User: Fold these one by one.
Assistant:
Number 1:
Amino acid sequence: MPDINFRLTFFLLAGCIAVTNAPVAAEEKPDSPIKPQDFAYAVPLQFDGQDALYRATLPLSVYRNTVRSDLGDLRVFNAQGEAVPYILQQTARSTIGKAELHKLVYFPLQGPVNADLDQLSIRIKRNASGTLIDMGGTAKQSPTSKLSGYLLDASAIKQSVQALVLEWETGNENFVGTLNIESSEDLKQWRTILRDAPLASLQYDGHRLLQNRVEFSAIHSKYLRLSWPQDQVSIRVRYISAELSPISVETPLSWLPINGTPVSDKEGEYLFDIGAHLPVQRVRIELPQMNTLVQASLFSRARPEDPWHQVSNTVLYKLHHSGKELRNPDIAVANNHRFWLLRVDQKSGGLGQGVPEMQVGWQAHQLQFVTRGSPPFQLAYGSKVIKPAVFQLQNFMPPSEQDKPALIIQSAMTGAQVVLGGEALLSPALPELPWKKWILWAVLGFSVMMLGWMAYRLVKQIESHDSNKETK
């Protein structure tokens, strides 16, 4: 009997050890190669030639059907189904430098009421470098003369000008008006740069709206002339600054409109779902009604369960004045969050009827890939189970040499989206049943029961043995 108990105990312990080590053995198995069918969708990569490197712009469908916000669940495959090296890059929208302000010398243009600027008789003095040092009318200023505009001397500026910033005397009064801007090289021939540019200085319910910056296409001109409609109140400026253009290349943004949804239990709050992990750089809020001026805060988050992060606190407005429409500028942001929340301050009356619309301005990534293997190539994306790629394209780039030409990356195009593994790969996979743990616990439970049973039999045997001794 002791020999049987020993053997039974040995087999139970061996079974426990085998089941316990089973998960470790499974984890040590290498991962199977990734194949196109592990992804939900793909787009073909189309190009001419047989170069080593190509570049393509990611389409909107990639951002809408990737699971990871860092775009880690995408791969490039060749015709043999092999993954090839790639890298994602995003071109900077603005490159070198930043905008700087340069104060300008200006001269008021006075003349009779209803007189055209070109009809004003003026006297001009220049120094040796051509800079204006004095300017005035040839006749005495009459009591009926009116300030009609300003002449700006920008001859000393060697850089292009992209905007003017004005500071004017308004006191506590509200002001809304427009401005015309012209340029000239000789003070004789004038070219219109901008007409009816909006200017405003409004105060209401503790909020202030100041629109004193006028932006236009960058120009390089010696002289600028400002004017306004004759029936408008004259603008008496304190100073005028030219905003110099930075040395940069502006890349246009793509814009995606998003409809808002009111939050049922919170007045003045509106939710927006972009439906994609877009690299957003600008947000534009379209107010539902004209002549609206409100204080608002904008929030964003990547997932519904994440807390809200404040992006901006600004004044939104949509005003009509003298046949012109004034709108607040776009909101600069820098994230790839999918969910957005607009919270409007209700102290000023809110937005009234209607729901705001949001437009997001974004710039797509550039995909660079190696054409190893044979075409056709395809970009596969969308998978809950794929881990981010660990290789970097820089590791495969040959070193640059002075006596050899630089490696040029050719352009490729993306085609229409095709289905690979299907939409099911975008949803979280069901967790695997922990059958190994269940077997382990079953074996351990059975072992405890057997040990208890053997202990019970052993106690009975000892009692029987002692009883036999007493009988003898």
Number 2:
Amino acid sequence: MEGQPKLEQLGQEAKQESVKEIELARVLDEVRAKGLEAPGVRELVVRWKIEQEKKTASRDAIILNINMAQIYVAAGDRQGALECLEDARRQAFQEDESELTETIENIMAGIEM
């Protein structure tokens, strides 16, 4: 059948998609547009988080939790966002990142309002 991609090509394209790094902006766009519970969106978030965790150092792990909070805010889940920020605040405190701890507390205060 002309005009239709071969099954082999489709498999390669799917493989390339799974290999590509998932951008935070894409995750946020999907969550805002469809919601966290839409088919495929939660899986996208989980894949993004796993990718990020694989390459995170201590400070990066704190930033990862802040980014996860952004995803929850985009989804309208304030409680989920606050839980991520609490994790980030705890990590920042344990790592003696006082400036980052203060920033996280300010973000939390804005969400709790």
